[in-house]
Amino acid sequence: MNPKIRIRGLKKAFGTKIVLDGVDLDVLTGTAMVVIGGSGTGKSVLIKSILGLVTPDAGVIEIDGEDVLKAGPRRARQLRGQIGMLFQNGALFDSIPVWENVAFGLLAERKIRRAAARTKAIEVLAQVGLAENVADLSPSELSGGMQKRVALARAIASEPAIMFFDEPTTGLDPIMGAVIDELIVDCVKRLGSTSIAITHDMASAQRIGDTAAMLYNGKITWTGPAQGLLTSDNPVVDQFTHGRSAGPIQMALRR
Amino acid sequence: MNAILGFIAAIGAAVLDAVAYLGELTIFGLTGLSHIFRPPFYPRLIGRSLMEIGFFSLPVVALTALFTGMVLALQSYTGFSRFNAESAIASVVVLSVTRELGPVLAGLMVSGRAGAAMAAELGTMRVTDQIDALSTLSTDPMKYLVAPRLLAGIIALPLLVAIADILGVCGGFIVATWRLGFNPSTYLINTFANLRVEDVVSGLIKAGVFGFVIALMGCFNGYRSRGGAQGVGAATTSAVVAASILILALDYALTQVLFIK
């Protein structure tokens, strides 16, 4: 099966700090990939590079076999237009109500008229378990869990072929985290999307991922089934997933 | 020797930083301006920005203009009465307000109020990923966030200054007639006798430029802010300081161009 997203030799440095040092990654169509790794290892930079929010120094990023980095601006926008993104803190727009946040992408792409957008937004909110009376509230009036659901609703509203989730359970209690994970799995399966999630949360990684990859020292050091994360014999993965203080990651920090 | 080389290197680095900053600012400003004329347009956002920059700044600009006109009349009287030239007060007040004080004071007030608010709003959007989120939702942040504010700044400031001009003259009129004993009719005749259309128009042109500068500095500093709450605070301060200095510097440059006669 051809990968939906294919990354080769992706490099990115900020000043003298090398964040990505030749990342190779394949995400097969219709599968859910989880990328794990310590704080500051470049997980967010990786997905921001695919989204075009960060310009890589070198490498290839292909979506459906087409190199996004070599495509013209319009074509790159079209390719990236298939991506829905759930940001770590929701990144909801405070100045507009919940329904307008959810329908924002549809309105921006002129896919729908304003009157119909509210109805569509309420439908999508229902899919993530939110009632109609939430639609007219401001995002700041919602709890953290509800904001995450609204952000998920916004990400899925245009039924994207690719979805990215940046730390989807960060800041949520374990029960709400599990609820968000179930919603993510449900949405991805229903839409048949290909997804990449980045997380520190091993329980979440196993719930939402089919496959997993470990980012360490700017490279993908391990890939395998998400269910095998806790039993991997890779010392870096083993230390990270079990949260051990002793191991190669700490030694690298000491150096 | 090393100290000298270090000093030269520090100067060189500072110059390079300044040139890079100016280049970035110029590209940002031109890109923002170009989006004003290219669809899609966001009339609701332009209206909202007009309200924030124009309508909500009206009280502070009005009060500033009114009291400035009053003070100007009193101070002019103090000086001119020594030369028996009290009749020139009306002309001094109206020309000072329309040519200079109206646009500059309104610009500084709006910079402190709306410019700071713009920088804080965009800065917060930057550090909470809202600007990145716009990009992922098929929306160009320059078009959605910057262009409406630039356009609103260019439109709102001249309107504010027109009102400030009227209130500044009214302030002078109130003090001259109530406090200094001028005849109201004579004061008004003197006010309009030496006032030309170009005095007012030139002030409004200045105001349009200042409005653009305020919006540009607010958006630019907010847009490129980094590092959480501290970064947003720094962006807000930079926006107000830079806009204020630019207003004063451009005021001189525009005065040279517009009032050369």
Distance between the termini of chain B: 53 Å
Largest sheet of chain B: none
Helix-strand category of chain B: mainly alpha
Shape of chain B: globular
Notes on the structure:
The complex is a heterodimer of chains A (255) and B (261). In chain A, the strands form 2 sheets. A 6-stranded mixed sheet of chain A has the order 6-7-8-3-9-10, with helices on both faces. Chain A has a 4-stranded antiparallel sheet with strand order 2-1-4-5, covered by helices on one side. Chain A has 10 helices and 10 strands. The mean pLDDT of chain A is 89. Chain A is α/β, with parallel strands linked by helices. The longest helix of chain A is centred in the last third of the chain and has 18 residues, at 174-191. Chain A has a single domain (28-55, 70-254), classed as Rossmann fold. With 261 residues, chain B is mainly α. Helix content of chain B is 85%, strand content 0%. The relative contact order of chain B is 0.16. The mean pLDDT of chain B is 93. At the A-B interface, strand 6 and helix 4 of A face helix 5 of B.
